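Batch 3, record 17
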Amino acid sequence: MKTFKLGGVHPAANKLSAKAPIEVAAVPAVVAIPMAQNLGAPSKAIVAKGDKVKVGTPIGEPGGFVSSFVHSSVSGTVDKVDVVEDPTGKKVPAVFIKVEGDEWLENIDRSKDIKREITLTKEEIIAKVKEMGIVGMGGATFPTQVKLMPPPTAKPQCVIINGVECEPYLTSDHALMLAHPEEICIGVQILEKAMGVNKAYIGIEANKPDAIQLLTETAKKGFPEIEIVPLKLKYPQGGEKQLINAVIGAEVPSGGLPIATGALVQNVGTAFAVYEAVQKNKPLIERIVTVTGKSVAKPSNFLARIGVPIQQLIEAAGGVPEDTGKIISGGPMMGKAMPDTNSYMVKGCSGILVMKNEEARRKEASPCIRCAKCVHACPMGLQPNFLAKFAEKDMLDKCEEERIYDCIECGSCSFSCPANRPLLDWIRQGKPKVMGILRARAAEAKAKAEAAKAAAAAK
Amino acid sequence: MNKLNVSLSPHVHSGNSTQKCMLQVIIALCPALLWSFYQFGLGAIIVTLTSVCACVLFEFLIQKFVLKVTPSITDLSAVLTGLLLAFNVPSNLPVWIIIIGALVAIGIGKMSFGGLGQNIFNPALVGRVFLLVAYPVQMTTWPVEAGYFDVATGATPLSLITQLVNGASGVSLESLGEAFLGTTAGSMGEDSALLLLLGGCYMLYKKTITWEIPVATLASAFVFACLFYGFEDIPGVSNWNIIMQQFLGGGLFLGAIFMATDYVTSPMNPRSQLIYGGCIGFLTMVIRRYGAYPEGMSFAILIMNAFVPLLNSYVKPKRFGVVKK
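Prediction for the assembled complex:
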């Protein structure tokens, strides 16, 4: 079975909610829809207090090229535009809407029928994806339409769909694949059409045999160019670079875009959202989210509207247990710890993980014994022990020499360190500093080249 | 609800610890240790107990009263150093010499550099080589039977080979099987290549170590044993026998599997580990063939220990997404 070549670790899967069906989460009395739900520039609110909205009404527009539309996930009246904390504790503007009924925009196709035929052209698909506010659903939330418009030098060859879900605990992608295999496959074909390619792979880790089987059968019945690729269990297989390496064997060049390998990677959730956007005219107003944890009474997969209070979702899974020490947005390897449960559901939130007090604390770090487990674990071929040391001592030239900018922050090093050293914490301190130096250097070189050009022209 | 803990990812840990790693090495040493108890009897037990207790005690005392830090003897690293020191000495070594060896191993080899993780040289080997130089007679008197007091002693196969190669006559070597199973004269723990190999397999299975260092060391030692001993005309014994005695005998397996793989003093990425192991095998055979000592494993490892910082600086792992032009 295929997998990526360098490094990797095996955290306990703990897929507690793997058997839980998708439940529709209740629509609350008030939702707060953050205006910064995508990677890149935040969206700008285009509604004001008192405005009436329906499900699907645009309430935010892109604030830049790498940005997204945001739509109302409920029908009702805009109460205020105020600042809220997103699940990572960052303060962002959000539109508060008082819910009145559940009235959808008329042009949204709410029927259960599956629409096979793709009538839109390449350009129309990209425009539709943008209009419907689709972003990468794996957690990175990169605006999808931007990814569908690669630089002219790129030669797209295939679409790779990420159904790996290598993060422990999370089951939202798994649940989605079981519930909507055909829609996902149509979504994949739409992505193929948008990229002008005729080959797609869906990578799924071997711990989801039911999803592998179901999608293989679905693909056989009418999607001959879609190949389901079972992958050997290993974290971080869901990382874009690792997935490309696992599925087609190519390596994304350091500092380059993934499309340089000819592969466009999208999450299964994104493929499904693209299907709904293009075929059903439905904006991204809800997503599947796993609410789980060893102490959670009822680990669940919810279909939740964007803007629903996180607290309400945890209540629906049995409430916050007494001895809770940490609540994470996302999985335990790369998710972000929430300061409280007062935030609201966003497009990129694939899971809410409740951890007991005893799980929530790190063990005290002891001296590095140079066992090299971090070196063997690193999927990027870095030496995290040295990087952490250099970053700690602010030796930025050494950090650069050791390629700190290649770090994907997957956490495999800290995870595997027997001395419990916070390796990734230190690397995160050094990485932006080195990136800043690299950017400044590139800008300087560019300015110099332009000055030389101008001087040559003046002569 | 408690106040929530906010820290950076990852939020889970493998559960591995320094103590667990050390324990795995200790478990891997057990087959060879038990064999040495059986073969050398009381002597092996006295040497092991003295060495382990002395190492742990010295670590505790130095940390508590000299460095004034919380003693960390529960990480088992001192126990491991004690075991490895015992493995590297004859089983009739006087107790007071072992204690001196332990003091040198822990005090000079480890603590003077700053304790666990900081030392450049393998502490057990520092202790062993100190004893070899300071007490050459006691350190090269090898018991050939079980017991501690007044045991019969004999020469190791390797010293016999040195005599043979230098033209001595009337020397006969034991069979190869004995070297593999471990019934020849020698240091306490280096006797049975088979049981050391078993321990090595356990550590590979448990992922305590990776294959690069032991395989590179053994492979290179074998190649150079063939080169150095394969073309010589030695009367009364076949070249193949000598090569295999060189390969299976002495400290090669103990060194390759347990000493060269010492975390702290070995390089950190697969490429540099291959170079490191290859050089150890080469140096061992050079010392054995052309040096004054019949055995060269300890020196070879210590020499390569000194090159580890250089290897770490110049030999980088295979990077993801970097293609050589």
